[in-house]
Amino acid sequence: MSEEKHHIVPYRVYVIVLMALIVLTFASIAITEIELGAYTVAGALLFAGIKSYLVLTYFMHLKYDKKYIVAMVAFVFAIFVVVLVITFLDYLYR
Amino acid sequence: MEQNAHIEHDHYDAEASKIGMWLFIFTELLLFGGLFVVYSVYRYVNPDAFHLAAEELNTTIGAVNTILLLVSSMTIAMSTSTLQYKKKGATLALLAITTIIGIVFLVNKYFEWGVKFSHGIWPGSEHLLNDFSQGEILFFGLYFVMTGLHALHIIIGLVIILVAAYRIHKGTVNENRAALLENAGLYWHLVDLIWIFLFPLFYLLT
Q: Which of B30, B70, B178, B184 pairs with B193 at a CA distance of 20 to 30 A?
């Protein structure tokens, strides 16, 4: 069973991803301190989105996994977005 | 002889284990996803109250906890690599660091909630119900439920990491049978992933 080749991620990749995540965290703190009105929420969510992409791709190994697992993860996030959009359509146009 | 019999009856399928873990993670994502939908709607309905209530939260402690979780995510991700390189000691050391960071996160959370309690703010407290607006009550309700549920996941994650560390120590989890450590890592990253959204939504959007 162990003949399946395991991709070993070099430590360097993890360190670079961590640095990027920390920089993005400080960037999101900085951007929310500026008064941008409605754009503040969008900005914060944009940075959170990029960070979660990095975590999913590198820490959770999706980059090295078979593509159908990536498709399943994308599908679940799509379901979440659809539920969110439908809920807001209900609130906005009821 | 006995070991041969053992191997014959013991099914191990790394890919199936991974898929099983991902399916479980999907249910967790949708559990928190439901709460995020509730948050979005109430924020949309009460923008000013959410603005005001978020001022009450300590951005510094939130930022410190964010960095802590990110670092611990890296250490557990690295431990999956060290296990493949057959460095058992380094793997256990990295898991120990992850565990310690997880505990520090919980200690920070304890003090953070403690400050709220000392200000008379907890779900259903008299001060909250009498002196705050409906929107602020909703904000703090969501704050306690979502960060509380997240903290519960940290505790569960720590237990899984400790079990994985014990089995690595015993040698039943090794470079050929790494699924338990891989899945412990996936779970810990899920906890990190959720915090990545909790932090800006509760602490930063003031």
A: B178
Question: Is-contact B149 B35, C-beta < 8 A?
Answer: yes
**Which of A11, A22, A56 lies nearest to residue B70, judging by beta carbons?**
A22
Structure confidence by residue, pLDDT tens digits, B99-114: 999 999 999 999 999 9
Q: Considering its fold, how many domains does chain B have in total?
A: 1
The verdict on residue B1 lying in a domain is: no
What amino acid is encoded at B156 in this protein?
I
Q: What pLDDT is stored for residue B9 in this prediction? A: 64
A 7-66 residues with CB < 8 A to B: 8-11, 14-15, 17-18, 21-22, 25, 28-29, 32, 40-41, 44-45, 47-48, 51-52, 55-56, 58-61, 65-66
φ, ψ of residue A65 in degrees (nearest 5)? -85, 170
- Asked if B187 and B157 count as a contact pair (C-beta separation under 8 A), the reply is yes
Q: pLDDT, tens digit, for every residue of A55-75?
A: 999 999 999 999 999 999 999
pLDDT in tens, B22-40: 999 999 999 999 999 999 9
Interface pTM, i.e. ipTM: 0.91
Chain A interface test: which of B27, B73, B94, B191 (most A C-beta within 10 Å): B73
Ramachandran class of B147: left when φ > 0, alpha when ψ lies in -120 to 50, beta otherwise: alpha
- Domain holding B123, by residue range, is 20-204
Ordered alpha helix ranges (H), A1-94: 11-33, 38-54, 67-93
Arithmetic mean of pLDDT, B14-29: 96
